[in-house]
Amino acid sequence: MTRPIRSVAVYLAVMLFFIMSLVGWFSGCSPATCCSRALIGAVITYLAVSWAGRIVYKIMLDAMIASRVRKAAAVDRK
Questions:
Q1: H helix runs in the chain, sequence order
Q2: For a 10 Å CB count at each end of the chain, is N or C smaller?
Q3: How many C-beta atoms surround the C-beta of residue 56 within 10 A?
């Protein structure tokens, strides 16, 4: 499950890199400034999406396990 999270994080980071580069370029910043700011934004985006994706995955996995345990306990009572 971490593979789809990682691919989404990379996709969003690359997309944000180019968007931030274009915005900086149209704003009149130097190429080095545009690149460094876009790179920092892309790294932060990658880390944030990866972190949030792992949290959502763990919450969903815990909910699925709890549901299975409840169903197994209900069957055992009968």
A1: 2-26, 31-77
A2: C
A3: 11
Closest CA to 23 of 12, 9, 33: 33
Task: Give 28's DSSP letter.
Answer: T
């990866």: which residue's tokens?
50
**In contact, 21 and 36? CB cutoff 8 Å:** no
- Measured over the CA atoms of residue 72, residue 73, residue 76 and residue 77, the dihedral's sign is negative
pTM for the structure as a whole: 0.80
Judged against a pLDDT cut of 80, whether residue 1 lies above it is answered with: no
* Rg from Cα positions in the chain: 21
Q: Which residue type is seen at 7?
A: S
CA dihedral 15, 53, 50, 46 (to 10 degrees): 20
